[in-house]
Structures are given as C-alpha cells and as structure tokens.
C-alpha cells in the first residue's frame, strides 16, 4: 500500500469514527464550484461560521484534503460568508497538512481537522517528518501569523439582498481613529495605517448586525418582493416583511433595510448618508475592485465590493428612472436620482461595455436640497458683500458665468443665484442632467420652465442643447440659464446675448480656472467670436478646499470683463487674501464697469453702491439668524422695502 492510499484510509476512518472525542452537530454540505469550496449551511445550527464552529471548520478541512481552492464560501439564510486571502490560505494549508501528516500521526491529523492552529504549534515542536510536513504544506508560516480563529477566519459578508460584499476585518496594521453612526442604522469606522498614515473607510451595514432569524426573514421578504408576490410600490417592502415577521420592532427595522436595498442603492446609500462623504466610486471590474469614497476631500478605499448582479441592478434602475438607454449601443449615462431619505439627491455617471470593462458608476452627493445665497454666506462659500454684488448683478439682468473645476460647487452656486431673480421673472432652465432646483423654485410660485437636452438626441428624451436654446428664445422674454456651457449652444447663446434676444439675466456654468481660462475656452475651444464673448459681464470662480471642518467649497474670485484696444481682459473685484475673499477696492474707488452698468437711467454709481450695501445687510441678517432655506428666503425677500428694481419689479 502506498502512502497516498494509507493516508486516504486513515482520513476515512477519522471521518467515520464516532469515538474521536470531537462530535459535532454541523450539517454543512460541501461542494466545489470552480476555484471555490461552497458549504450549504442552510440546515446547520452553526450557520457555517468557521471562526466559531469546530464542526464546520472540520468539514471544510476534510474537503480541502482533496484539492486546493482560492476561496471558501458558507451559505445560509440569504447570507454568504466569504473566506479568502489569509483565511483561505489557513484552511487550504490545514487540508494539505491533514492529508500528509495522517500517515505519521493520526491523532495529530485528527486535531488539525478542527483546530489546525493548535496542531501546527504541536507539529513545529516535533522532530521530522511531522515538523517538516508543517513547513512544506505552508501551515507553519500561515499559523504563526495569526492569534486565533475569531480574527484569522473573520469572513467578508455578502447578502443576497444587498448584492454587495463587505469585509468584516479591518486592514492589518491599522488603528481605529473614528467611529461614525450613519442615518441608515449602519456604522462607519475610519482606520489609519500605522506605517503610511493612509486612511481606510470601513462600513458595517445594518444588515450584518441582524440575528440569524432576522437575516432569514429579510431574505424571505426579499424573495417575495422579487417574485412579484407582493405589490404596492413604495409600501411593498413593508408588506413583504410583515408577511414573514410578526414583531413590530423587527418589522420596522427590516422594512427600512429592505427598502434601502430594493428601492434605494443599498450600501451606496449607506456611504452617501455620511455627511463627510461627497462621492462614491464603483470601478470596474466591480467584484475585484473596492468601492472608494471621497471622504473629507481624501479618496479612501472601503471594505465594500459590489457584485456583478448589484451593478446590473443599478444599471436597470437608471434605465427605468431616466428613460434613457444604457447599453453597448449607448454606453454612458448621466442622471440625477434620489438615494434615500438619509442620503438625499445624487448625481450619477455610469459607463458600461464596450467603453469600459463592465459596468461602473460615480455617485456624487447633490446636497440635501436647494441652497440659497444666504445659505452660501452662512456656510462660508462667500462673504455677504460679495454675495450682494452677485445678487444685484442677477437682479439687474447681468450676464455671468460660474466657473470652476469638477466638484468646485458651480451648479450649487448657480442654483442659489436663481433665487435672486425677481419673483416675476420667467426663467428657462436648460440641462442635460436635471440638477438645478427647478421644482423648489416652482413650489414658491416662480415661473420656471425646464428643458431637458441630450448629447445624442436618439438617447431617450431631450433635444440638442442648441435647439433647446433656440426654443427657449421663442418661449418669451426672460432669464436664460444653462446648466453647463460646453458645446455648440455656446455660439447660439452668445449671439442671443449680443443682439439682446434675452431681456433678463443670462447665467451658466463652465469649466475653467478664472476669467482668462474661461475666455480661452469659449473663444478657442467653443469657437465663439471675441466680440460676442465680450457681452459677458462677470465670472465668479469657485474652488474646493480643505477647511477646518473638512472638505468645503468657496468663491475664489469675482471678475468683471473689460473691453480694451487690445481685446477682452478681466479685472478682479473680489479675490482671496489668504483664506478670505475680500474686495480689491475697484468698486469703492468708482472704477467698476460692472457696477456702473447695473445703474438705471435715473441712478448714479453711488446709488448702486447703496443698493449693494442694502443687500449685504440683508444677507448678514438672514445668515446670522439661520433663515437660509428657500421658503424662508423667499418670504424675507417679499417683505423687503427696497428701491424699485429694473424690469420685473
């Protein structure tokens, strides 16, 4: 009999021997699937918890005496426990060790089936060949680096409901620096690497804290919902839970969790519910790439990975909600959607095959609601006197651009300026992805018409930006607002401004780093004649920065356009002095072309300066008293006793 046959007989005897002294109730059913060992733990009282159950561990090690795998998965009640990396290495090495040491020491082999760490310690103290087997199988090197099964075999968790994988173990060599309670009953922990200082973001979703019975009930409710057995729109998750659970406290919690994972965006909603997280990056290939977050301005890796099914579910949901194609024929997507009560509105950009290796997304926090100019004063985006200048420019039919890099706050600031338009002004808003506060403006009685555009007019609803602008000019005199000036519509816009086709303010956002950068982009890149661009009256540039309370945004400069013999140039009216936005003195010295242009025929430059002072005091009072929400601001504006405005007074 050769050694292989002898080892097999010994192992078979150990498995069948009822007198081993290690009886257990494990009912896990193992099977190999490609490079994985999968245990069906549905009927196992230990639920396949390898870090806690000797019995479940011995079933795994027995199976791994036959072959190696890259991953071990135990599956029960809608939850997968995934053991890979160091955990899989320990289990695979234990399987090899048991197979090879059985012919030398059957008792040690039997110990290693359920307690490979203890068996390894015993083996390394022995003489060859037992100590040599421990070294050659890799068990010695793996076991030396672990302290116990609770940490060595701590699994990543993947719920069939969540369609995401969450690693339970924090990164090695890290220290906990912060714990954050999220508005979704989940928890986030921030760890810092002791050697490099790099931070990581560890999410503990509420679903992972449920009892086995709770997880089973959640999975049952999800199955009912997915099968169509439960209907009722937004109330369907609660009805599905009540069909399988009769505890009022548990029904409330399970209903919220189920709604988050079926009506919202699951773990992405968890991440975006953190006030310090502004962006969530789901990068392809999703199953092997950790989700990353922009946390207080720093990009951190998380312990979350989306499954392919999860990414596909997101894609399907965006197709339904936006009405736009998202497929190989149309592999990019831009949309705005609600991520949940705790996460608010988010902007989503998506890519899929063939422009990327699979389906990936970026989710950007769109804020908790529309911000007003007083709110931007309150949060430090700009001071009250600079806000007053922008307000009067908009009220007096100014033509201006809000510039900045990605994430600088351009759209937020443009949205705030829309509240400064006189209440009776008809406003046409043109966007390809709805982001500006059209609905909120309408709710306060504003006359706002939204036009949705599409870069590819065959990609769902919408018309081309240029055609939308021509349509807006035919909809009647009023303010024109472009979500972003970036293509052929720029020429149409500036021609309309040049000939006076718009009778009120013209506003838009544009990528650029100040007036000169904007000038170069509009004239050189967008092919707008310099004579047409000269009708721009001001450019306000924003930038992101790291403030004392985390990532923030601020106005870096406000510039007015000047037309000289040499062409178009810019002069700053406000610029940064250290971290503060301060006046350059041009307005006070009577040199501002913009301020002069804002005066009515019966007003002087000094009258406009008086109007600026009036609005500065209004903004200071509103910001100091916290009256910065849209309705409060609209009410305060309506009560103002101020000089009559030009146009829609």
From TrEMBL:
One of its GO terms (molecular function) is ATP hydrolysis activity. Residues 630-649 are annotated as: Disordered. Pfam families: T2SSE (PF00437). InterPro entries: P-loop_NTPase, T2SS/T4SS_dom, T4SS_GSP_E_ATPase. It comes from the Archaea. Residues 277-521 form the Bacterial type II secretion system protein E domain. Belongs to the GSP E family. PANTHER family: TWITCHING MOTILITY PROTEIN PILT, TYPE IV PILUS RETRACTATION ATPASE PILT. This is ATPase involved in archaellum/pili biosynthesis. It comes from Natranaeroarchaeum sulfidigenes. The lineage of its organism: Archaea, Methanobacteriati, Methanobacteriota, Stenosarchaea group, Halobacteria.
């Amino acid at each position: 009999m050769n050694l292989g046959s002898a080892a097999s007989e010994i192992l078979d005897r150990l498995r069948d021997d009822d007198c081993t002294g290690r009886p257990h109730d494990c009912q896990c059913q193992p099977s190999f699937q490609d490079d994985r060992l999968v245990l069906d733990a549905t009927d196992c009282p230990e639920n396949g918890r390898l870090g806690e159950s000797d019995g479940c561990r011995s079933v795994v090690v027995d199976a791994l005496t036959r072959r190696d795998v890259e991953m071990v998965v135990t599956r029960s009640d809608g939850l997968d426990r995934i053991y890979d990396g160091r955990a899989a290495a320990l289990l695979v090495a234990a399987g090899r060790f048991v197979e090879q040491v059985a012919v030398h020491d059957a008792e040690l082999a039997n110990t290693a089936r359920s307690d490979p760490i203890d068996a390894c310690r015993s083996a390394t103290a022995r003489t060859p060949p037992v100590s040599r087997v421990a070294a050659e199988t890799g068990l010695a090197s793996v076991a030396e680096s672990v302290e116990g099964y609770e940490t060595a075999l701590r699994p990543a968790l993947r719920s069939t409901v969540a369609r995401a994988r969450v690693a339970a173990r924090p990164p090695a060599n890290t220290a906990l620096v912060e714990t954050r309670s999220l508005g979704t009953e989940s928890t986030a922990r921030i760890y810092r690497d002791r050697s490099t200082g790099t931070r990581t973001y560890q999410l503990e979703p509420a679903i992972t804290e449920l009892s086995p019975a709770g997880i089973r009930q959640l999975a049952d409710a999800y199955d009912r919902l997915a099968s169509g057995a439960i209907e009722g729109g937004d109330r369907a998750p609660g009805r599905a839970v009540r069909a399988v659970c009769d505890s009022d406290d548990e029904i409330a919690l399970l209903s919220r969790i189920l709604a988050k994972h079926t009506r919202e965006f699951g773990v992405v909603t968890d991440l975006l519910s953190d006030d310090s997280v502004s962006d969530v990056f789901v990068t392809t290939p999703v199953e092997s790439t950790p989700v990353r977050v922009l946390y207080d301005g720093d990009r951190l890796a998380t312990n979350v990975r989306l499954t392919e099914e999860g990414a596909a579910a997101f894609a399907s949901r965006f197709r339904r909600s936006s009405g736009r194609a998202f497929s190989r024929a149309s592999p990019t997507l831009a949309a705005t959607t609600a991520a949940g009560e705790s996460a608010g509105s988010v902007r989503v950009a998506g890519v899929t095959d063939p422009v990327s290796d699979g389906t990936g997304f970026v989710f950007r926090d769109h804020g908790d609601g529309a911000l007003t100019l007083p709110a931007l004063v309150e949060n430090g985006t700009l001071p009250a006197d600079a806000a007053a200048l922008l307000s009067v420019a908009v009220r007096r039919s100014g033509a201006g651009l809000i510039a900045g890099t990605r994430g600088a706050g351009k759209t937020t600031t443009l949205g705030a300026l829309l509240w400064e338009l006189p209440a009776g002004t008809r406003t046409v808003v043109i966007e390809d992805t709805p982001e500006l506060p059209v609905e909120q403006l309408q709710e306060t009685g504003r006359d706002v018409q939204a036009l949705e555009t599409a870069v590819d007019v065959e990609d769902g609803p919408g018309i081309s930006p240029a055609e939308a602008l021509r349509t807006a000019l035919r909809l009647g005199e009023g303010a024109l607002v472009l979500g972003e000036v970036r293509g052929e519509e720029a020429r149409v816009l500036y021609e309309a401004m040049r000939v006076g086709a718009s009778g009120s303010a013209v506003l838009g956002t544009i990528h650029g780093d100040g007036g000169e950068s904007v000038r170069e982009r509009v004239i050189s890149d967008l092919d707008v004649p310099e004579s047409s661009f000269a009708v721009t009256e001001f450019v306000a540039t924003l930038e992101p920065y790291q403030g004392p309370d985390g990532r923030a945004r601020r106005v870096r400069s406000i510039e007015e356009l000047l037309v000289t013999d040499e062409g178009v140039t810019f002069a700053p009216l406000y610029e940064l002095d250290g971290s503060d936005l301060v006046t350059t003195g041009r307005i006070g010295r009577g040199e501002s072309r913009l301020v002069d242009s804002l005066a009515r025929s019966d007003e002087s430059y000094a009258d406009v300066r008086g109007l600026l002072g009036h609005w500065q005091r209004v903004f200071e009072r509103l910001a100091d008293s916290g009256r910065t929400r849209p309705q409060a601001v609209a009410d305060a504006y309506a009560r103002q006793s101020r000089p009559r405005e030009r146009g829609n007074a």
